[in-house]
Each structure stands twice: as C-alpha cells, then as structure tokens.
Recover the amino acids of this structure.
C-alpha cells in the first residue's frame, strides 16, 4: 500500500510538471499567434491549454480523493469523484489531441468543417477514451513525421519525438488496468514527451 | 500543370525585408537590395517600407534625392529575433507563418 501511495505521489508530481510544460507551450503558441495572426497557432495554444487543464484537474481531483479517503468520508462519493475526474481527463486529452491534429495538418485547402464534429466525439464514445486518444495521436504523429521529413530541422524532430512518447504513453496504458508497472511506464513516457517538447521550446528560443 | 506559388504572409514579407536590410550590415541597404532580397514588386516595396518606417522598425536616411538607405533600429532587431524564434517554433509543428 505504501509503495502504491509513493508511486501515485511521483505520478502526480510528473503530471504537474508536464502540466506546467503544456502551459508554457500554450503561452508561447499564443504569443506566436499574436505576432503572426496564424490561426493554427491559436488552435495549438488552445490544445496545450486544454491538455494542461486536464492534467491539473487530474492532480487536484486525485489529491482531493485522498483527502476525502483519509478523513474517513463516504467511500461512494470518493469513488464517483475519481470516476468523474478520470472521464474528464480522458475527454479533455482527446479534445487536445484533436486540436493538435487540426493545427498541425499539412497546408492544403481551407479549414476542415469536420472539426466541430470531432470536438463532440469524446462525449459520444465509450468512457474508456484511451483507444480514441491513440487513434487521434496516431494522426498527429504521422503529421509530425511528414513535417519532419519535409523540413528536417531538429525542432521538428523534438516535436515528433514528443508526440511519439505521448502516443507510447497511451499504448502502454492499455494493459495497465491491473498492472502497476504498465501504469508507471505510461506516466514516464508522457513525461518524456513533454520534456522533448520543452527542449524544443528552449532551443527555439535560445537559437534565434 | 501550373505550380502553385507558396503563400507568404505580410509578417513574413516584412521579416524578409528586414533580413535583407540586416544582411547588408551597419551601413544598411538601399531599396533595390531590399526589393531583390525580399522578392517584391516595386509598389509593394514602397508600401511595406513606409510601414516599417512608421512602426520604427527601420530607419530611413537620405543622402541625396536618389540615394535612400535603410537600417534596422533596435526595435527592428528585437522584432526580427522574436520572429526567428516564432518561425522555429511554428516550423517544428508544421505550421506555416
């Protein structure tokens, strides 16, 4: 039990750091949007903001769950809280990934009209959203690969590595429902993904 | 089939002009160098140069009637540095600016 609690503490710490990195990326994308007026940067900024909100929501929700449990409160209210937090976390992540897929799509034609429909997708599908997240992230990773092959810059490579780690984190989460190691691995992959994106942000800022 | 010319945003055109000016060093660049450096028509060049001067990103100096030179101001250099950062960031995600 103590080992599990320690793991959850580390998990929440990694999630908080990743949330801060997502917030920094959202801030920079928004700044870039104000300078250039490129709408896709605004979509990218919203994507990272939603992702950051999902992560902080999960951290706060999980922490609150433990506070309720330690106070000897009604276990059913704690359980329903964790269910709500988990569904909201998954749905918001899928929304963020859809925004990434839309903002990083190859430049051809106009804005896709499918976006509003895709945004509603998380509430239309099964609460177990990992599979949806994997499909959307697969699109994002493919688009990042195409972009890297076109521009061949280290910045594009960091983004490709970052999104690939996020995809791996969801893939490794699938068998983790009754395997703590798989769950821990998933969190580590997610953290590494955000570290790659942070390195890109720092290097892009430094090497102007 | 006709090949499609890549779209250049106004911000990119201004940055290209400022790069052309910067590449000429401390003495600055004349209109012809900027025109070729940024690949612009004469009308657009005049319009955008006026805008750069009005925004205090570029300083215009005129020795004689026919010789005008343009140099980047400190604000212009800061803008160009920020633009390059944004360019790296956007390019990393495959977003054209």
């Amino acid at each position: 039990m103590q080992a599990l609690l320690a793991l959850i503490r580390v998990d929440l710490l990694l999630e908080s750091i990743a949330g801060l990195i997502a917030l920094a990326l959202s801030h920079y994308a928004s700044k870039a949007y104000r300078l250039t007026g490129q709408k896709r940067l605004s979509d990218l900024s919203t994507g990272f903001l939603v992702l950051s909100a999902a992560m902080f929501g999960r951290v706060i929700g999980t922490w609150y769950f433990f506070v309720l449990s330690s106070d000897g409160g009604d276990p059913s209210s704690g359980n329903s809280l964790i269910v709500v937090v988990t569904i909201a976390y998954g749905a918001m992540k899928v929304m963020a990934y859809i925004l990434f897929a839309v903002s990083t799509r190859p430049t051809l034609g106009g804005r896709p009209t499918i976006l509003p429909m895709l945004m509603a997708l998380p509430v239309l599908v099964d609460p177990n959203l990992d599979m949806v997240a994997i499909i959307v992230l697969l699109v994002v990773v493919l688009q990042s690969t195409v972009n890297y092959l076109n521009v061949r810059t280290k910045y594009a490579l960091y983004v490709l590595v970052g999104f690939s780690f996020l995809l791996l984190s969801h893939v490794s989460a699938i068998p983790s429902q009754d395997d703590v190691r798989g769950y821990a691995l998933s969190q580590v992959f997610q953290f590494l993904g955000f570290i790659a994106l942070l390195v890109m942000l720092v290097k892009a800022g430094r090497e102007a | 089939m006709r090949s499609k010319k890549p779209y250049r945003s106004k911000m990119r055109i201004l940055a290209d002009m400022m790069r052309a000016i910067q590449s000429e060093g401390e003495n600055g660049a004349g209109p012809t160098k900027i025109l070729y450096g940024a690949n612009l028509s004469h009308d657009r060049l005049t319009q955008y140069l006026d805008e750069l001067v009005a925004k205090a990103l570029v300083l215009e100096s005129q020795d004689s009637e026919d010789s005008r030179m343009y140099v980047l101001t400190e604000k212009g250099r800061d803008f160009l540095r920020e633009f390059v950062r944004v360019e790296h960031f956007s390019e990393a995600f495959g977003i054209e600016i």
The radius of gyration of chain A is 18 Å. The first helix of chain A runs from residue 2 to 36. Chain A touches chain B at residues 28-29, 31-32, 35-38, 40-41, 44, 103-107, 143-144, 146-147, 150-151, 153, 155-156, 158-159, 200-201, 203-205, 207-208 (CB under 8 Å).
